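Appendix C reproduces, verbatim, an entry submitted by the partner laboratory led by Prof. M.T., so that reviewers can inspect both the input and the predicted structure.
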Amino acid sequence: MKKIEAIIRPHKLDEVQEALSDAGFQGLSVSEVRGYGRQKGHKEVYRGTEYNINFVPKVKIEMICTDDRLEKAVDIIIKTAKTGEVGDGKIFIYDLKDAIRIRTGESGEAAL
């Protein structure tokens, strides 16, 4: 099993979620996060005063999938979240030792 963490632009969330759902991926967790990478924030002007926004708002998607469906999930996220501009985000993939469904006690892929 693998854990996928994807940090994407907030306005792309619905599109990514819908594409993953259409492909049969069932579980998804979403968090609002703020940060910066190469983009290094941006500047905004409010009432004539310029402000540096160091931490850009993003959305972090977390999902678990089987090893054989990993590539499909990553491809969907890339295709739907990509704008081609700096700040599109990153995808991180982790090996997952186990998963346990609290309600039934099922573990491994059966818990997904």
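The chain has one domain: 2-111. Additional entries are available on request from the coordinating office.
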